[in-house]
Amino acid sequence: MTEVSVTMQVGPGAVAAPAPPLVVEHVAKSYELDGGRIMPVIGDLSLTLREGEIISIVGPSGCGKTTLLNTLCGLLAPDAGRIRWHGREVAGQPQNVGYMLQKDLLLPWRTALGNTMLGLEIRGVPAAQAEDRCRAMLDQLGLHGFADQYPSTLSGGMRQRVALARTLVNEPDVLLLDEPFAALDFQSKLLIENDTVKLVREGRRSLLLITHDIEEAVSLADRVIVLSKRPTRVKTVYDIALGGDRRDMMAARQTAGFSDYVRQIWADLDVVLQ
Ligand SMILES: Nc1ncnc2c1ncn2[C@@H]1O[C@H](COP(=O)(O)OP(=O)(O)OP(=O)(O)O)[C@@H](O)[C@H]1O
Ligand SMILES: [Mg+2]
Questions:
Q1: Given ligand 1 and candidates 58, 65, 69, which is best to mutate, with the most ligand atoms within 8 Å of its CB?
Q2: pTM of the predicted model, to two decimals?
Q3: pLDDT at residue 183, as a whole number
Q4: Is position 219 within any domain?
Q5: Protein residue whose Cα sits closest to atom 6 of ligand 1
Q6: What is the extent of the structural domain holding 157?
Q7: How many domains does the chain contain in total?
Q8: Average pLDDT for 117-128
Q9: Of 51, 76, 129, 229, which one is least surrounded by beta carbons within 10 A?
């Protein structure tokens, strides 16, 4: 798939539409292995994330999803192609982008609150204000009463919620989440999916979510992108047209058409895995 963003000049005085939060054009990335062998991981990949949009990305294990997110947020340099954030190519890490890594990576010597406050501290937000915002975010993610506990005393699901709170409290315009709910039991997963989607949709933020869970991918997203095996590229894009309240993950799973999308995407991945 090739997506090219076009800004149209409709007539005199027409205001150009703002550039999408993220436009990726023909990005490629390889790793150099021991012995000098080059392993292509991202083939030729293009996608556009629009304002207020939620995109889920699914693909075979090891196809290059984490590599893609690392490249998008400037932790890795692409070998080819262009990445534009709000219309501009940026050197290094883009502003107002929250990236939650595949592993929660909480600092063990800081409490849940201390971990959540990290980004605000770095940005110089006054401590009292930062603490209020972080406590409110922890409450919102169901961690009321756990703010002063250390990561080692929290369950895996709670730790992931702390990591999510740490990402969301910075109020990023764009969120990049790498399998954020993978370690959760079904019930916790639904609750956190709901909270995340609510925060994203109500704040007009945009979200790129990587997941192995096809039902999660469909229930959350406006579009699901299926990636091919390595070197990965966009294989299929599904526009998810489900009715009802798109902030309610349980309701989305019961909507007519939901299981058709899930079946189709499974079939698509099976073809890839052969
Ligand atoms: N720093 C690195 N150096 C060399 N190879 C790497 C490096 N990081 C990842 N790889 C390899 O690149 C490929 C893609 O890895 P990546 O972690 O991006 O895949 P993924 O789709 O996120 O996998 P998963 O579904 O397991 O999370 C894998 O074969 C992996 O072993
Ligand atoms: Mg990964």
A1: 65
A2: 0.89
A3: 74
A4: no
A5: 31
A6: 103-171
A7: 1
A8: 91
A9: 129
